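Q: Entry one of two.
A:
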Amino acid sequence: MECLIKGFILSVRKAKNEDSIALVLSSTEVKTYYRFFGARHSILQLGNLIDFEVEGEGSGFLPRLRSLSHMGFAWLFDKNKLLLWHNFIKKFEPHLKDTEEMDSFYFDLLLLAAKKWDKQNPKRIVCESYITLLEYEGRMHNDEHCYICENRIEEEIALMQSFIPAHPSCLYSPALPTKKVLDFFATKKTVFLEDHEVDYLYEIVMKGL
């Protein structure tokens, strides 16, 4: 008997005759699958968490998705929350495009985020998830020196993509209080940040993981 696999759909694109090609993140890999057009095609949507079986593995063609079922979350019916989810999960396709086998970190990160998505501000979940991802990948820049001029950052800080610190004047960017940002880096929590400060961090994440 085929075993069911759980995975998040990172992208879907149309193929011929209304068929689809989907990129799915499971707990062990990111893989592209073919899906023939069928009655349960509506399950194959960006960001959905699905249970599925695979057929045609190792046949020389794309393996095929079958026996799909959708594992839903209550917030899927909230258009604003769903849009934020799509914005977040879309960043994983380019980030993981050259990765095949992996451990469960990325799947677990998205699953934990999805479970919390209606319990707190999704932008805060995005920022906390992202700082966790940066630490996991060894890309944290939590020193107090500007990436551009290499001088020490004082009371105010600006952040480049990947949350790389810089002087606001070097980056020509709005500023955040340095202590708050360093506390966020240390705790991985946004609880001490104001909503407008979270918006600032969120916009940086949206530039790419």
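Q: Entry two of two.
A:
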Amino acid sequence: MRSEQVTAGSIGGPAVRRKAWYATPRVRRPVLLLHVVSSVGWLGLNLGVPALAIIGMTTGDPEVQHAVYRVLGLLGDLYLIPLSLTAFTTGVLLSLMTSWGLLRHYWVIAKFALTLIAVVLIPTSLLPGLHAAAEAVASAPPGTFAAVPRGGVGQVGAGFVSTAMYLTCAVLSIYKPWGRTAFGRRRLALSGAGRAGSL
């Protein structure tokens, strides 16, 4: 880890020293790699969920319907929560490890909020529907269509909404709009005062 000293003070008043800690590239790169891999995997799952749900809703083969909803149940349990939590946690760590910060830029706050909402909605909204569909096909006799709750519409809608949220996060990461927050501007002013005081 490396530190950057910031010195600021009022005219005639005592200087205040603050240390901002940023991770070195050696520490930051593995976290960045894990963040990218988990985020891409999370996005891929959310592109696949509505596609599979549509197949389950429209197929004329009960065996296909059973297979689709069993796969959706497995994907939800094995991948959605671990990938979402990994992407969220590594994103927060990266913001704290770099000069972007967590509260210094509006785009970071927006991305944080969207990701947090998605992380909360997975166990509270999406997974219950996937579990209900998997249980319905498991209890249906072979060769017969299962009465899937909500007809898979919940999975389709949730998949499209979450995909839109993740794509928005990707756009925010690339374009970084809206500038600094008031907190970020204060930190920038302190940093500039520190550099001037060290000359």
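A: Comment on entry two: The mean pLDDT is 83. The beta strands are 2-8, 16-22.
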